[in-house]
């Protein structure tokens, strides 16, 4: 009896162990199946940490690198746009300045008799072709304002510039210093008016930019010479109400260009310590 009981008990124990083993195997399969399902939905997860690829480990660093590169690229594009805007603004400012200057400019005409000179096309550049006195009045006459006429000495032989009473006619072969109502700024420095002379201005030379500024608003009315922007000490006071600018060519090869005639809002003339006044006679 005892032996049969023990055998039956042993068989029962073995059966229980087998059932437990089967349940463990079934549970293990279920866990494995769930794990595969999770890994399928999330490729970043692997069966173990040792199975994580090096590429996956570097994914956050790649993202940071990509983000930095994108920021740098955007920053570079912003700098380029700012540079483009600055360039455009400079062009706009230049156009505005040029437009403002052109509004102040007065269209000029130079009409003289035929003679020993040539004129460059589309500009007021005149060249003497032989020795002859030639005076070129610049139109229009100016009145009631502040005006500046700018010229450039291209080739200096015997060239004068000046101001005369409007409407004065000086024929070729006539020296302008022989006539009244005419101011002469000579290339060698002296100032002539009606046979009177005063020394003190610097000599002109090739390439110099010459400007004569007349103030017909002040009393007495004045004329000042500028050479390369520098005001000269000898000036003329007591001008008539209306005047014209002019230039004079004499020797072969003398050449001058009239650059502009402008009306100014304010004078460029200042009080200088060594100034010398010549009275218009």
TrEMBL record:
Keywords: Coiled coil. Residues 71-98 form a coiled coil. InterPro entries: B30.2/SPRY_sf (IPR043136). It comes from Streblomastix strix. Residues 32-66 are annotated as: Disordered. This is SPRY domain-containing protein.
